[in-house]
Design brief:
By secondary structure, the chain is α/β, with parallel strands linked by helices. Among the domains are: 225 residues, Rossmann fold; 184 residues, Vaccinia Virus protein VP39 (Rossmann fold), CATH 3.40.50. Helix content is 24%, strand content 15%. A hairpin with a 2-residue loop joins strand 9 and strand 10. The two termini are 28 Å apart. The relative contact order is 0.13. It is an enzyme of class 2 (transferase).
Length: 650
C-alpha cells in the first residue's frame, strides 16, 4: 500500500476513560399502565416512520444510532451497538472528548477483518503536504515561483495510510500561552532559530521554542510595530477587522493583531524557511501555505480591510504590477495596503540591504506608479512604514482611466472566482455607485456589529437564492445547532480545549458566528463545488475563510486543527471523489485527540463510521437535534493519540 510503513508503531497501554454523561430526563420505575401506554405510543410512531419512509431505498437501522431521546423502556444502558462487532463495546460508551496526552503516550489500531484498516505511513511523511510537496514541485516552472503553487498528486499517487505525528508529540500549549511557546517535538526544526536569530523571530529553549514576537522589520516586537501602524491608521474603532499578511514568517503580526480584535490570514510558501507556516499554526494563529504567483489568491473580491507586507520579497512593481493588481482585487473599498522593508526608507537602509541606491529608488518608483494606476492614494509614509488606500468607489478612477489605460479595466467576469484562476493584468471594477460618497458594494458595519447585521452582498441581492430572511433563519438555526453540539460534547464549552477550528462547508458562517466569543479561530471553507459562492458574505461578517475542493488536499500541514466540522460535505462530494480519501485528509490535518462533527444522511454516516473505525477514531452516530425521525444524523468522533516510533538507537 502506497506510503505504508512495515515498522511497528506503538499502541496504547490502556483505553481512554469514557466521559460520564447524564440524561436530562431522570427515569422512574414504570408501572403496568405506563408500560402499556408507552408500548402503544412507540409502536404507533414506529409504523408511522415506516410509512413516511416507504419510498426510501434503505432502512434506518436503530442499531447504528446512539439515541439522545427517552427510550421506550428504561434500561441501565441506553446506547446501542455500532455497525461492526469490533466497535460494539465502544459504542456503548459516551465519547471522551478531553485530551490526555502531553508527553510520550502513543496509540495504534486493533486489527479487525470486518473493517478496512489504514496503516501508519512512513515517518518521512510526518510533515507531508500533498499539494505542496517539495519533490513534486521541482517538476514545474521556477519562473515567478510557479513551482511553489498548488500541484496535487494524481489519484494513483494518493496515500492510503495515516500520517504519523513525530515521536514525543505533545498537545500544544493553550491559548494565549501558545502565542509565545511551542513544543520542539511537535515541529522539530531549528533552522529559523539560527537564520533569523538577529531578527528575534524564534528561540530554542530546551524542549520548546519561544516566539519573542520579532520580525525582519520589527526586531523590537510585533506589538510595538502594530502600535506604530496604529498611530497612522485607526486600528481600534472596529472599521478594520479582516487582514491578510503576505509572506508572513511565523505570523507574529497576525498573532498580535488578535488582541485588537483584528483577524488576519497569514500565508507563506513551503520554501527554504522551513516550517514557518507550521510554526504559525502550532502557535494557534490562522495561516495557510500559499504564494502569490500566476493564480489568484483563494479569496473573494473585497474581502480584506487591510493587507500587509513586511519585507515579504514580493516584486510588487514587476510583471506590469500583477501582484498589486491581485491585492487590489481582494482589498475592500477604502482598505489599506501596508508596506515595510525594501524599498521603503531605502536612503537609510540601502547598505544593509546590499543594494544600490539607484536600484532601490527605481523599485519604489515602480510601486508608486502601479499604485497610482490602480487609483490608490498614498495615505502616509513615516519612518519604515508606507501605507496606501484603495478608493471607496471607481467614480473618479473611471475618469482617470480615460487618460491612463494601463492596466485596463477587466471585462465582465466573476471577481470572486479564485480557484486555480489565472491572475489577469487588468483592474477589477468595483460595483457601480450613484455618488462619489457611496461605498462600492455597500458599507459594512464596524466590528462586532457587522457579525450579525445583514451583509451587503445579501441585502443587495447579489447572492443567488439567499435573501435577508434566509440569513436570519440561518443565524437562528446555527444558534440552536451549536447549543445542541455543546450538549453532546461538553468540551466545546471549555475555553482551552479547542483553538484551531475548520468548517468544511461554512455557507454563511453560522457555525463560526456562534463560537466568536470563545478563544478560538475558525477557517471557513466554501467548497468550489457548492451551488452558491458565499465566501464574500463570510468576510463581510468579519470572519475569515478560503476556497477548497475536498477532492484535493488542503494547503496546510498535518495536525493543523483541533476540531473539524463538516455539514453535508459527503453528500456534496458523492460520486465526485472517494469518501475514504476525504476522511484520510481529515485524519491528516486533525491533531491527535482532535474532534470531528460530521452532519449528513444516516446511510452516509454509517459508511463514514466504518472508515473512522479503520482510522482508529472513537466515534458515535447521534440523533439529529430535531429527533430520531430525521434522516440527517451526526457523527461525533475523536482521533486517537499515536505517534511514530522512537528513532532507531535513541
Amino acid at each position: 500500500m502506497a506510503g505504508s510503513n512495515p515498522t511497528p508503531y506503538y499502541t496504547p497501554t490502556s483505553k481512554h476513560t469514557a466521559a460520564t454523561y447524564h440524561s436530562p430526563f431522570p427515569l422512574k420505575r414504570p408501572n403496568l399502565y405506563s408500560l402499556v401506554a408507552i408500548t402503544f405510543l412507540c409502536s404507533a410512531f414506529y409504523f408511522t416512520g415506516l410509512w413516511q419512509n416507504r419510498g426510501s431505498s434503505s432502512v434506518i437501522t436503530t442499531s447504528n444510532i446512539v439515541h439522545t431521546t427517552i427510550p421506550c423502556f428504561p434500561s441501565k444502558n441506553t446506547s446501542t451497538n455500532s455497525p461492526t462487532s469490533s466497535s460494539s463495546s465502544k459504542s456503548t460508551q459516551k465519547l471522551d472528548f478531553t485530551t490526555h496526552h502531553s508527553t510520550d503516550d502513543v496509540g495504534g489500531v486493533t486489527p479487525d477483518d470486518s473493517i478496512k484498516i489504514y496503516p501508519p505511513c512512513d515517518i518521512k511523511y510526518s510533515e507531508y503536504t500533498p499539494c505542496e510537496d517539495p519533490e513534486r514541485s521541482l517538476k514545474f516552472n521556477r519562473n515567478r515561483l510557479i513551482y511553489r503553487e498548488r500541484h496535487c498528486p494524481e489519484k494513483k499517487e494518493l496515500l492510503k495510510c495515516r500520517i504519523p505525528a513525530p515521536y514525543g508529540y505533545k498537545n500544544p500549549f493553550k491559548w494565549p500561552i501558545s502565542r509565545d511557546l511551542a513544543w520542539y517535538a511537535n515541529v522539530p526544526h531549528k533552522e529559523l532559530t539560527v537564520e533569523k536569530a538577529v531578527q528575534n523571530w524564534i528561540r530554542y529553549e530546551g524542549d520548546r521554542f519561544r516566539f519573542p514576537g520579532g520580525g525582519t522589520m520589527f526586531p523590537n516586537g510585533a506589538d510595538a510595530y502594530i502600535d506604530d501602524i496604529g498611530k497612522l491608521i485607526n486600528l481600534n474603532d472596529g472599521s478594520i477587522r479582516t487582514a491578510i499578511d503576505t509572506g508572513c514568517g511565523v505570523a507574529s503580526w497576525g498573532a498580535y493583531l488578535l488582541s485588537r480584535n483584528i483577524i488576519a490570514i497569514s500565508f507563506a510558501p513551503r520554501d527554504s524557511h522551513e516550517a514557518q507556516v507550521q510554526f504559525a499554526l502550532e502557535r494557534g494563529v490562522p495561516a495557510l501555505i500559499g504564494v502569490i504567483a500566476s493564480k489568484r489568491l483563494p479569496y473573494p473580491s473585497r474581502a480584506f480591510d487591510m493587507a500587509h507586507c513586511s519585507r515579504c520579497l514580493i516584486p510588487w512593481g514587476e510583471y506590469d504590477g500583477t501582484y498589486l493588481i491581485e491585492v487590489d482585487r481582494v482589498l475592500r473599498p477604502g482598505g489599506f495596503w501596508i508596506l515595510s522593508g525594501p524599498p521603503i526608507r531605502w536612503r537609510k537602509y540601502w547598505k544593509g540591504w546590499a543594494r544600490t541606491r539607484e536600484d532601490l529608488n527605481a523599485e519604489q518608483n515602480k510601486i508608486e506608479q502601479v499604485a497610482k494606476r490602480l487609483c490608490w492614494k498614498k495615505f502616509v509614509e513615516k519612518d519604515d512604514i508606507a501605507i496606501w488606500q484603495k478608493p471607496y468607489n471607481h467614480v473618479k478612477c473611471t475618469e482617470f482611466r480615460r487618460r491612463v489605460k494601463n492596466p485596463p479595466m477587466c471585462p465582465v467576469q466573476d471577481p470572486d472566482k479564485a480557484w486555480y484562476t489565472k491572475i489577469e493584468t487588468c483592474l477589477t471594477p468595483l460595483p457601480e455607485v450613484s455618488s462619489e460618497e457611496e461605498v462600492a458594494g455597500g458599507q459594512v458595519e464596524k466590528w462586532p456589529k457587522r457579525l450579525h447585521e445583514i451583509p451587503p452582498r445579501i441585502s443587495r441581492g447579489t447572492i443567488n437564492g439567499v435573501t435577508e430572511e434566509d440569513f436570519q433563519k440561518d443565524s437562528q438555526l446555527w444558534k440552536r445547532r451549536v447549543s445542541y453540539y455543546k450538549s453532546v460534547n461538553n468540551q466545546l464549552d471549555q475555553p482551552e480545549r479547542y483553538r484551531n477550528i475548520l468548517d468544511m462547508n461554512a455557507f454563511l458562517g453560522g457555525f463560526a458566528a456562534n463560537l466568536v466569543d470563545d478563544p478560538v479561530w475558525e477557517m471557513n471553507i466554501v467548497p468550489v463545488e457548492a451551488k452558491v459562492n458565499t465566501l464574500g458574505v463570510i468576510y463581510e461578517r468579519g470572519l475569515i475563510g478560503t476556497y477548497q475542493s475536498w477532492c484535493e488536499a488542503m494547503s496546510t500541514y498535518p495536525r493543523t486543527y483541533d476540531l473539524i466540522h463538516a455539514d453535508s460535505v459527503f453528500t456534496l462530494y458523492e460520486n465526485r471523489c472517494e469518501m475514504e480519501d476525504i476522511m484520510l485528509e481529515l485524519d491528516r490535518i486533525l491533531r491527535p485527540e482532535g474532534s470531528v462533527i460530521i452532519r449528513d444522511d444516516v446511510d452516509i454516516l454509517i459508511k463514514l463510521k466504518r472508515i473512522g473505525d479503520g482510522l482508529n477514531w472513537d466515534s458515535q452516530i447521534i440523533d439529529h437535534e430535531d429527533g430520531p425521525l430525521e434522516r440527517e444524523k451526526l457523527l461525533f468522533a475523536v482521533k486517537s493519540y499515536w505517534t511514530a516510533p522512537t528513532a532507531q538507537g535513541s
